[in-house]
Amino acid sequence: MLMKNCIIRLFFFFILQHSVFSQVDSIPEPYRRFMQEEKVGIVLYGKGNYEAAIIQFEKTQLLSDSLEKFLPTSLDTLKKWDLSIAPYRKLNLLNNINACKAQLGRFDESFSILVNDIIPLARELSSPNLFPFLNNAGSSYNDIGQLDKASIYLNEALVVFQHKKQKKLNDTLNYANVVSNLGYNHEKRSQMLEALPFYQEALYLRRQQKDVARLGIALMRLGNAYFLNGRMDSAYLLLKESLAIADTNKTWREHADWGITTHYMGEYFEKIGQIDSANVYFQKAFDFQKKQYGLAHNRTLRSTMMSGLTLASLQQFDQSSERLHLFNSARNDYNNSNFAFLTDAEREPYLQNVQYQFNIIQSVGLQKKQADALSDIMFENALLYKGILLQQNRLSTEALKNRTDSTTIRQLQERERLKKIIDREETRPLSMRSSKYDSLNQVLLKIESSLFNDNKLTEKQTQLFTAQQAQKLLKPTDALVEFVHFMAKDSQVWYGAYVLRPYFDRPQWVLLFKENLLDSILYRNRDAEQMVAALYRGTRGIKPVSSTLKTNLYDLIWSPLDTFLKGAKQVYYAPSGLLHRVAMESIPLRKGGVLSDSFNLAYISSSRSLLTFNQLNSKMKWADAVIFGDIDYNKEGIKSIAKDNLAMRSPAPKRSNRETWTHLDATKQEAEVINAILKKAHIATTVLTQNAASEESFKALGSGLPSPSIIHLATHGYFFNQNTDASDTTENNTFIQSSQPLIRSGLILAGGNKTWQGKIPDEGHEDGILTAYEISHLNLENTQLAVLSACETGLGDIRGSEGVFGLQRAFKMAGVRYLLVSLWKIPDAPTAELMQLFYQNLTTDNNVRQAFQNARKVMRLHYPNTPLNWAGFVLME
């Protein structure tokens, strides 16, 4: 549906011009030449030669600028000519160029023209032509998943239509377009019942208008809506009627939407199990749309993928592999083109819009024969999506910082200033937010849109990584395990893993389990201490308690991989979904001991991160460190409530306004010991305690001077999931109730109790609650290691293929390389002991992974039956 109304308008303008000027004998020759040049562009467009059409329209635009001196001054004549008036002529040419760029999939340029040039000019002219342009904007935003923006433009188009005093035929045609696009908006939201009335009205209008191409589109849209609502017979009849029009009508057979109708018929046959017929239709759709749009276009991508999958179902694996590799490559090109001009806030809904493609290709893993033949394509596809938002954020930020022009520097400074204000407002209860909050967000969005558009990040930001590239990084005794989770057609979420060794001919795919099974194991015991004891109590000579469960973690996750891991010493693993909440290294083995006794395990974000940043080497050099500990959460003198061995760096207090964050006595000694160890190793240190361990102090890191090599935070941490019941918590606590997951995760610093109780922070001071949202906006690129010696710092909302949205993501966005975080509440004194061992090892050989592994081994010897004291910490890269 993208930009089809723009196309219709393009031809309408040309016909209108031609009919008007053919009746006027006194048209100046320069204007006649302008009309002829414009006609050449329209003909090129009609033939699908969009690049040449853009060049022609731009040439015509230059001619248009020189016409004014040749035009009559009579107002009556100008009115009769209509589009001879300069602003209308400009509007027409911009629309022509916009339509071409949209068809080429150059949406960064197309959106810029449409939203920044065409619509403002139409508004300024109070133009009757505003109506279709608003519809075009809504259609475009629909297609990239910006559904709220799409709805705004489409509903404004309806308002404009209702206010028009005279409704011509073309108006009602465009009205039907808007109605259809509103149906599509609901369809994209999976609100199919809401979509049906819009599609039904659109079809009724199209039948009245008797326009063949538009009728074909309306039949196709309603037919697909019936298909998605399970009304298969009705769907088939409408799609069949739509395609039958092409038998007698060349216009519809050559129309852009004929290809998508053919694709939908393929989906119908695939759904009812007639794979041969489905393959025929998908192949037709692929051939047509490849010719019409090229490969890197949403429509072609869908048909490329489905054609490849039906070939796999027919066990034509060579052809299937070729087609699906083509899909991966074209999808990557499409992402590169479109991620470049989207802001960070816009990228997530864009990716959610194409998540179903990831799910469909990974679902090949449910069929063993197909998975064995196509595992390299599936692995390639997994890397295409997994962690792409985080990587794009880092690459875009880096590219922007490398810009030296004064305009970009000023915009970046203003962006930073606005983010600081908005950060503060985000953590205030809704009732206490500034009245300027919404307008500040709008200003920030405009600045970011300008930065991303002007930055011209259209060059390759990512590349399509393959298994062969990953294998080149591995030593003979190395292994790479890439976990994935995906939703199958039956809405069941499955987990699987790709195992890669340097000598494998392709990744080995292992289908593991359904998510509900892992979920039941992890949350069988809501109390963290009981859960840890049940799942992780297992050292040499002691049977793990988890063996009493129907399925334990080892049998569920790692046992199926054993065949492919024989002889491996170093295993890099990238979790997915709920596996982010499993302490892999501490999983008990059947024979006793834990998984880290069998392998040197390295927790990575994804294979994509290894290939992008090549971070296999964990040897580091340390220049300086900043240590936070012994923090006064009240800013009125330390008052210890619990003894060292009982105090927990625990989840947030819930019941009463009087209940607040308690002082952690062991963090004083922890900070002092770490300071002494680092100083002995000639590493410059800064220790911030009591009131000095403030949010202001943390936010100063990386501001002006490079951030320190090491940041150590010994404090309380918190995380609330989306389903947290806030009814029994401190009233109006934004840190619990926020819809933003990076607000619902954070660390408590000096004075944080005042804010937590709902009181207003002192004027001119931060609130003492360092949210993940605030951390994500800092510059910590010089920091190689951040140790979050607090509870639940590794948790957060799990979102699709992007992983955990919480503190760990925030520190990655800020640029930190290694993170030491916890998965549950942790005892105060044993945590301090673990940290002392870790830093002693770290300053001995500077190997981060080995230092942590050795420290954990010693803790296991000290606390063989208490995994709560050591198993919860994980080191991620």
Short description:
By secondary structure, this protein is of the alpha/beta class.
Query: Count of helices?
Result: 35
Query: Could you tell me how far the N terminus lies from the C terminus, measured between alpha carbons in angstroms?
Result: 42 Å
Helix content: 40-55%
The count of β-strands is 18
Give the overall shape, derived from the CA principal axes.
globular
Unreliable stretches covering 5 or more consecutive residues? 1-25, 78-84, 539-550, 637-658, 725-730
Strand fraction:
5-15%
How do the strands of the widest beta sheet line up side by side? 8-6-9-13-16-18
Class based on secondary structure composition and strand pairing: alpha/beta
Mean pLDDT reading: 80
Q: In this structure, how is the largest beta sheet organized?
A: 6 strands, mixed
Radius of gyration: 30 Å
Describe this structure in words.
The chain is an alpha/beta fold. 54% of the residues lie in helices and 10% in strands. The protein contains 35 helices and 18 strands. β14 and β15 (804-806) form a beta hairpin. α7 (130-143) packs parallel to α9 (169-188) and α8 (147-163) runs antiparallel to α9 (169-188). The longest helix is centred in the middle third of the chain and has 23 residues, at 317-339. Mean pLDDT is 80; it is low at 1-25, 78-84, 539-550, 637-658 and 725-730.
